[in-house]
Amino acid sequence: MLTDKNILLAISGGIAAYKCAELTRRLKERGANVRVIMTEGAKAFITPLTLQAVSGHPVSDDLLDPAAEAAMGHIELAKWADLMLVAPASADVIARINAGLANDLLTAVVLATAAPLAVAPAMNRQMYANPATQSNIANLSKRGALIWGPASGEQACGDIGPGRMLEPMALVTLLEQHFSTKQILTGVTVTITAGPTREALDPVRYISNHSSGKMGYAIAKAALALGATVKLISGKVAIDVPQGAEVIDIESALDMHQAAMTLAPQSDIFIACAAVADYRCADIATQKIKKAGDSMTVTLVKNPDIVADVAQLKENRPFTVGFAAETQDVEQYAREKMQRKSLDMICANNVATPGQGFNTEHNALDVFWHGGQHSLPLSDKTQLGKDLLELIVQHYSKREDK
Ligand code: PMT
User: Fold this and answer.
1) In this structure, are residues 175 and 279 in contact, taking their beta carbons and an 8 Å threshold?
2) 92 C-alpha to ligand 1 centroid (Å)
3) No. of helices (H) and no. of strands (E), the chain
4) How far is CA 15 from the centre of its chain?
5) Is the pLDDT assigned to residue 317 strictly greater than 70?
6) Are 268 and 190 in contact (CB under 8 A)?
7) What's this model's pTM, rounded to 2 decimal places?
């Protein structure tokens, strides 16, 4: 699986750097081409000569070295890579990558590469637990980086806890897994809306619904596994971000509409799984609304229909898939929605059936398109996400063939 794969191993300063000789050997044994970048800090833990010997190539360590730039410059390295692995990734290097700095070769190449970025954190457990590091790692993950590790255990400093770099063979396994799935969606951008919207009444109250985001996130994971570039426009949810997806956090339907109209023309497939509020408050109170009388009236105005606006795009219209959450006459309402919103496909779920639909682990879908339909039976949302995506890809590919 790693044969002829170009792995750019970027080593930063940490005691685990010494394990990179072993990691390089194991990758080479499996047929990968390995080139190594080292920071100044890394060279305090292992010599460039060792990495040159095991990788079979000179190590790159200086952004401003004319000789190195003339041989294989930083932009060429960035283009050469099929994947860039930063291992060990110190707290400092993670912070600099997150900030978008380019003040050494490693960070400059991270910015310059279009290859997937994998980061293997390695640091003292307290540094790892620090909110600054946690926030940096979470941001990298949101922007699509693969976060591999850290492992937990005894550390070089004597502490015990999370912060050890994953062992070389564990990293090799993750690399193999990364390259093993048939990446049929490589080069395809899939944008997915997921979760609920929140429509503010005043600074402390809002109208929303029970969507957990599980269905949309499962579709995002399935698309990532097939190699797609995934943009996830997400309402407030309490589930983990799928590693590798770019997540755009939103609150209201208007926020979601704005994000969708920006991203949809850059996407090949658009899947609207979010439970979007059809209406929002006409006037959001600037101060907390005071209790007065036995009833109150709120005037609502219609929100834009996000998926319908995407489907109406005159230029760069993506293959557009909607959902329909129904409690009765599911097929009739779903087909009517597909027609009215000019969708390519619609995935209908009966949200009145106990154990499926909103905020459940399972779901079942009846998928309709012009001239056909297919039922995906009750299963957990992870499996359903995969099955649904397979169906969507079949129809998207047919359209592409035309
Ligand atoms: O998030 P989970 O807890 O896992 O639950 C999953 C789910 C039940 C939310 C999901 O399977 C689902 O059915 N999503 C669509 C919910 C919905 O709002 O359906 P609808 O029938 O009201 O809307 C039809 C379609 O138009 C949907 O694709 C919706 O995203 C879209 N829409 C609706 C209103 C609006 N203003 N803009 C939109 O884009």
Assistant:
1) no
2) 41
3) 14, 19
4) 30
5) yes
6) yes
7) 0.71
